[in-house]
Write a structure and sequence with these properties.
single chain, alpha+beta, 34% helix, elongated
């Protein structure tokens, strides 16, 4: 017979003692589950003062804060979570860390904690929740059971999953003005991943930035609030008065929202305003109208 389950609640670390306990448990989680190899080059950073100071700064800032949370059941702490709210973006909650302590794992406890966290995030103003799911192949399976969907690759090459937003927010299309924008790298990696191409490295990224700065290439971004969810590229042809439209991509969770058509229409209007006779669509990527 399975043990009787009781409701999982969430409490936030407020006191200095709770904050110290949170960091002790987070370090134990890193050592045990994430970075068990003492020779792992990332281990010193994540267990050291620099990372803790960086997170503490995000915890203490007045906007887009992270939160130190404990999962509780029957009066006991059974796990922790480290979410960051990006209210200045589009209400995203990004889940940095999630752990159920080993002695409390099993019998669906992880999914119960995930549901409690999603409910807590929504009550506290989150529009949706996103996370990285690289490393252990069990992680994508777990989060898919919690309602998350694969949603591209981040700027560091890590797979992303998202529990999609329910509230509609109007999409806007704008020209990228800052080639250093991290969201450009995220979208490029998402496109390359779906086309089975090598993810962005520094050399091709710098080449792309240079052609953007020179005006030879113009990037259009589709945005949900301040979050970029899609893009396309128009490149100038020196041998004719036409442009070439390529890299049409929309993040999987935001497809079927007419975004690809909006991007294409914006690129065509811009080309007309630049005096071009037209634009030629190159081989469509994973955001063509048939799937968007």
């Amino acid at each position: 017979m399975e043990p009787k389950t009781t409701q999982i609640t969430i409490r936030e670390a407020k006191s200095a003692a709770d904050t110290a306990l949170f960091w002790a448990q987070l370090h134990a989680y890193f050592q045990r589950d994430i970075l068990p190899d003492p020779n792992d080059e990332d281990r010193a950073y994540f267990l050291g003062p620099e990372y803790q100071a960086h997170i503490q700064q995000a915890h203490d800032r007045p906007q887009d804060r992270c939160h130190y949370l404990f999962f509780c059941r029957d009066g006991n702490d059974i796990g922790l979570a480290l979410p960051v709210f990006f209210h200045s973006e589009d209400g995203k909650c990004f889940l940095m860390e999630f752990c159920v302590y080993p002695e409390f794992r099993g019998h669906g406890t992880g999914l119960q904690c995930a549901k409690a966290l999603l409910d807590w995030a929504k009550r506290n103003g989150a529009s949706y929740t996103e996370l990285n799911c690289g490393g252990d192949e069990r992680r994508p399976r777990f989060w898919s059971r919690a309602g998350f969907l694969p949603n591209g690759i981040d700027q560091w090459g890590e797979p992303l999953m998202i529990c999609p937003p329910e509230e509609p927010i109007p999409y806007s299309i704008e020209v990228l003005t800052d080639p250093e924008d991290w969201q450009l790298v995220k979208l490029e990696n998402g496109l390359r991943f779906e086309l089975s191409q090598q993810l962005m490295t520094e050399e091709p990224l710098e080449q792309l930035r240079q052609v953007i700065r020179s005006g030879a290439t113009t990037i259009f971004l589709a945005k949900r609030g301040c979050r970029a969810v899609g893009m396309c590229r128009v490149s100038m042809d020196d041998r004719s008065d036409t442009g070439s439209l390529s890299d049409l991509f929309v993040e999987p969770a935001f497809r079927h929202s007419d975004i690809a058509r909006m991007l294409t229409a914006a690129a065509q209007q811009w080309s007309h305003e630049q005096g071009l006779s037209g634009i030629v669509l190159e081989q469509p990527g994973p955001a063509h109208e048939g799937t968007n």
